[in-house]
What we know:
Blueprint: E1 6-11, H1 17-30, E2 35-40, H2 55-63, E3 67-71, H3 72-77, E4 90-92, H4 95-104, E5 108-110
Parallel strand pairs: 1-2, 1-5, 2-3, 3-4
Pfam families: DsrE
Organism: Methanoculleus oceani
InterPro entries: DsrEFH-like, Sulphur_relay_DsrE/F-like
Amino acid sequence: MTLSPRVVIHLDERQKATLALRSAKNLITDLAGVEVEVVVHADGVEGLRAGGPNTDLMGLLAGQGVRFLVCEQALRSRNLTPENFPGYVETVPSGIVELVVRQAEGWCYLRP
């Protein structure tokens, strides 16, 4: 039995949002069957807001199965709500906990 690769991309810096998204695109283009999650916290949340420069690429990636998980603690600290993000963006109570859990589950960790 062959397992599909699973990669969690860690984004905590606004200026690295485009790089993280391009990394996700390269993964799904070049690695058959890969499952990708982009976990976002701290200042990284600013790079994925609706209407921002990354919205089109995010929509393309979401349409190809990439999941976007935003930290609820980071949202609260910035007075943001899920409505500040495209509808396919999900929230998790803690981005850091999500990263730890995924790694414990055997996901590959990528921090651009």
